Amino acid sequence: MRDFAVRSSTPEDLGEILRIYRHYVLNTSSTFEVEAPTREEMAKRRASVLALGLPYLACEAGGVLVGYAYANAYRPRAAYRFTVEDSIYVDPAYAGRGCGLALLSALIAECEQGPWQQMIAVIGDSSNAASIGLHKKVGFREVGILRSVGFKFERWVDSVLMQRELQSIKR
Question: Which DSSP helix (H) or strand (E) runs through 149?
Answer without folding.
Answer: strand 141-152
